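Let's study today's protein:

:::
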Amino acid sequence: MAASDPLQPLLFEALGSRQVVADFSAGTLSSDGGVLLLRQVDRGLGLVRALSACFVDRRDQRWVDHSVEQLLAQRIYAQALGYEDLNDHASLRRDPLLAVACEKLDPTGKDRLLPQFQDAALAGPSTLNRLELSNHKTTRCHKIAHVPAEVEACVLEMGARCLPKHAEELVLDLDAMGPRLHGEQEGRFFNGYYDDYCYLPLYVFCGNIPLWAQLRTADRDAADGALEAVKRIVAVLRRRNPGVRIILRADSGFAREELMAWSESQTGVYYCFGLAQNSRLLELAAAAMAQARARQILCGGAAVRVFTEFDYQTRDSWSRSRRVIAKAEFTEQGKNPRFIVTNLPGHGWSPEDPRFVPQKLYEGFYCPRGQMENVLKQQVLDLKADRLSTHHLGSNQLRLWLSTLAYLLLERVRAIGLPGTGLAQATVGSIRLKVLKVAAQVTVSVRRIRVQFSAAWPNRELYTTCVNQLRNATWAGG
């Protein structure tokens, strides 16, 4: 099909006596004006710069158009903007504002080495694909490799930099998720819980901050590798803040002897895990269940909760007796007992601190771990972190790390640029839609790059507030 004339008018239904005519003559435009915010956050954190140091570049630099740092910036920024597929870069490579964000000195592409590429400043899909696959290919075209251990450490260090440096207490949430696979990816395995072929990545978050994103095959326990991850994380957090108190929080899939025993052997490390019910636990909670049932009858069938605690030890798997909290609950649907195990002291850190008594510990501390699931949903729904469609397990791990860092950039836009606004608690998808997705006209001259937004844009004040707060921010560790 022949290329259409950009000045050829497109006719629409008339508005009264006026014709409605459109064409493609507006000049150099971008639909992602908010990418400048991502660049500002990245420059403050030093994220892409630190990540690029985890790569080995064996290319002859005389013939290189795109540095590793620029390639990573292009990939991560695009993912934050909603372009999760490499094929998207076939057109994105011509976006002048994304080129500015990636530190391209000529965002029009006129400085490219080969004339046939001088209409696009950025890399195409094939170049970015080689970046992801180079660890698993040995052709002359695959010359950029990453060191997985260093990338893993970089993700952890970037997350740790975003935490309050002098915090007295940090709560680490652990969870696993099962992204389904729709191909013959390396390491695919059928998982009965998810009833499909999937991976089983391990995540660790502190609040909204990602610290760990480890891709695992699904033929294992949910807690597999969690102890090693926690040891690494605690070491980094203690290096930045030696006296910080650390509490591990997770569902029953992580109530494993090795994780609990290690926590108990450390100073200032605690845990609060869900505990799967069994006949012995139900027997120990029977009196509380009877009390809850009696209260429900007196209340006319309304839901009633009664909390109790006791010491409990398994017959074989636990090395010692541990504190267990039981929620004895009856609802309109029937009985609903739940259990958690913890080494948090019932008296709290002082006689005036009652937050670890049974009811407050369960309702006020353990149940809020559900917020981590909301964070994971943002990664999957808004950043497509489950798009693990390359063949190699290692390449999919790299994709998971890149999507995690893209989320971290957006989280920093929210945490530093949007406090006090209507988006202070928004999902990263809402932030992208309302702050990043804005049309901009880009004019490149010898002395400046001028970016012009629409005067009628309804979120102009929100954008201005975000820019000012990011510019005035103090970047810890950046």
Q: What stands out?
A: The mean pLDDT is 92. The longest strand covers residues 322-331. The longest helix spans residues 393-417.
